[in-house]
Amino acid sequence: MSVERIFLDPSRCIGCRACVAACRECDTHKGETMIFIDYIDRGNTVATSPTLCMHCEEPLAPCAQVCPAQAILVSPDGVVQQADESRCINIRNCVYVCPFGVPKFDGPGRVMRKCNLCYDRTSVDLPPMCASVCPTQAIFYGTYEEWVAAGHARQGAKPVNVFSFGKQRLRTRNYIVLTERHDELDLMALAEQASLGTISDVPAPTTTRESAPWVGADVAGLPQRVAPAHPWAPRTPPGETPSPTPTKDPGRPSREAAPT
Fold first, then answer.
1. Is the CB of residue 83 less than 8 Å from the CB of residue 111?
2. Could you give the CA distance from residue 151 to residue 218 in angstroms, rounded to a whole number?
3. Is the pLDDT score of 117 beyond 80?
4. Which run of H or of E encompasses 18?
5. Does the pLDDT at position 24 exceed 80?
6. Side-chain half-sphere of 157: how many Cα atoms within 13 Å?
7. Which of 47, 128, 185, 222 is the most buried (most CB within 10 A)?
8. For 160, how many CA atoms within 13 A lie in the half-sphere containing its CB?
């Protein structure tokens, strides 16, 4: 079955920040934006690109795997949620481990926040707020077939969801759209090839040293976690017992069945 994903196309982004404003309206974010607009090379161009959670699939959610309090849950359909405020212990492992630098630590709130794909909307077949307001469809939400049908592949655009960081390889739920065909995007190699301006006497790059491939959670001995059906629902406060689900008394006649 086709999976609805986000396709990020930096070549379409005009820096209007409509997505940033709309993200604040998502109920699960409570007025905080979880999407950011980055300048690609501000000294030479006004080009911008949106940045949001890529929802890593393999390995599954490194941010969740390194959380000792299991505050970050993954929904059954693969959406990585932001930290549960009742479980987050503020050690910021998730912030340090994310290869895309997405999770942000809310100091006053003492909790990690990040894009959760507007799960209150996408879980009921509505698009994320950012994708619903983007005027150029730089943020497109849908299946790959819908993305092609919308005409985004006509000019040679190629979506990529496999990234390399040195020897570490990562596959994500969301895609980055490029103008050239790449089965895998090596971000470390791109960083080494980046222009360094007028600085000429720089040391040799070290991004490919001291790196090792990711290992699966089963090999590392980390527990696999399963999210409840509604991970954003509030938990029972400490000391309170959840109310039992009312059941119908078989000995009492139903009001609907009462004679008129």
1. yes
2. 41
3. yes
4. helix 18-23
5. yes
6. 21
7. 128
8. 21
Listed residue (167, 172, 202, 210) closest to 187, CA to CA? 167
CA distance 242 to 1: 37
Domains of the chain: 5-220 (3.30.70.20)
> At CA 230, angle to CA 225 and CA 234, rounded to 5?
100
3-class DSSP assignment, residue 173: strand
Contact call for residues 44 and 58 (beta carbons, < 8 A):
no
Token pair for residue 173? Answer: 């739920």
Each residue of 151-170: pLDDT tens digit?
877 767 788 888 887 777 88
Sign of CA dihedral 64, 69, 70, 72: negative
- Please, what's the b/e burial string for 171-197 (b: 16 or more CB within 10 A of its CB; e: otherwise)? ebbbbbbbeeeeeeebbbeeeeeeeee
Which parts of the chain are beta strand (E)?
5-8, 36-39, 48-51, 56-58, 104-106, 111-113, 139-142, 158-165, 168-178, 185-186
User: What's the gap between Cα 42 and its chain centre?
Assistant: 25
Per DSSP, the three-state class of 74 is strand
Q: Of 29, 3, 228, nearest to 125 (Cα)?
A: 3
Pick the more confident residue, 254 or 163. 163
End-to-end CA distance of the chain: 50
Backbone angles phi, psi at 148, to 5 degrees: -70, -40
Residue 210 is given by DSSP the state S
The answer to whether the beta carbons of residues 4 and 143 sit under 8 Å apart is yes
Query: With the CA atoms of 229, 231, 237 and 238 taken in that order, what torsion angle do they form, in degrees rounded to the nearest 10?
Result: 90
Three-state DSSP at 36 gives: strand
Amino acid present at 6: I
